[in-house]
Amino acid sequence: MTVATELQRRLDLLRAAHMRGAPDYAQRKKALAALAGALKTHEAALLRAVDKDFGGRPHAETMLLELFPLHDQIRHARRHLRRWMRRRSVRSSWFLLPARAFWQYQPLGVVGIIGAWNYPLLLTLGPAIDAIAAGNNIMLKPSELAPRTAEAIGLLLRDAFPLDYADCATGGPEVAGAFSALPFDHLFFTGSTRVGHLIMEAAAKNLTPVTLELGGKSPAIIHDDYALERAVQRIVTGKLYNAGQTCVAPDYLLLPAGREARFEELVRKTVAGIYPALADNRDYTRIISARHRARLLDLVADAQAKGARVVTLGSDTPEAGDRLMPPTLIFGATGEMTVMQEEIFGPLLPVIAYRDLDEAIGYVNDRPRPLALYYFDDDRRRQDHVLASTLSGGVTINDCIYHLAQHNLPFGGVGPSGMGQYHGLDGFVTFSKKRPVMVQRAFAGTALLRAPWAGRQKLLRAMLRIASR
Known about the structure:
alpha/beta; Aldehyde Dehydrogenase, Chain A, domain 1; Aldehyde Dehydrogenase, Chain A, domain 2; 2 domains; 6-stranded mixed sheet; 16 strands
């Protein structure tokens, strides 16, 4: 049996179960509670798996950035689920009276979810929570770049749900390719823009709707009036979570010209306070693979060869095989450097000087629309100017990354940084069909809206006059 045939068999099992009856409100709440319980039961195994996949990732970071958001997302969905599922009446169009009209959200069927390696729990199970809340059956494909975590997710799902409700396919590129070609009712992907093209192409053959959570180069802009020390602390924190392997990490910084020396001094101080040493510091996450680390080193070498001033923070020499990549500032970054052409996904921060705010805005707008934008300024007028003059997937003002944790805000990219959105109600809507319903009465004016048209001309002209007012 081929990989594609086996995956289709498993999808058919999920679809048949869904066709026997989609989960109702009580069943969805029970399923969300079962997932929360499984997360608690498997917590230690999940923490170990993520740590091993990264070659060193602090349990505290996984708890803060993955497990806590998942539990809070489940709590939020359970609290609001009844309201999200409620049928909503609307006014009927005047010419269709006395009909009544309403809409309601209904599950799509079976949702496929392809997770990412950088946050292998959150970015695989997070969309699954929204899909479950919307009443769907689910099939997951965790990233093969975090194989231990993928296996742990599979065990967790088997512990929490029957195979005809939630399934997990693990494996390499062959499995991923076959998975994306399955005729799901919705396909959700988190990953690179390059692979996003391939996912969309595969899904198009089945007319499968897709949500693409991609990435891009998310800028941070510091205004000259903003407290530089506070901005540095927040940018460094956001940048160095997961050693920069975060899709919404600040990818480059636009800094007022003349503040470079002070900025470097503050970054050195901040990094030293968070990570007094690097080589033996288990609080600092390692890079996911030797290949990814080599790519980051190549980005630094390329920038240096093309005239950038590179500042490496932390001079400790890692042991052989340790995939440590130190925090690195790249001053004088230009568009010719590869580091300014690709999403970095590591602890490198290019710094670009600007003279006035409109120059910084222009720099951002000359590039593909990013997944996130960060602006540091207490002036409300200038904040509004930046918001009106730019477009990005999301925005955090005076901090980094945390807009992602707002359950009542959608999360998603725009253009090259993604398509569609999820989180909270928006995730529920993404995995639902907003189904319109009209109920006509026994006696209705629509009896006049059919041939023969003789004698209907005055009625039609009266309708046109009303509609064109």
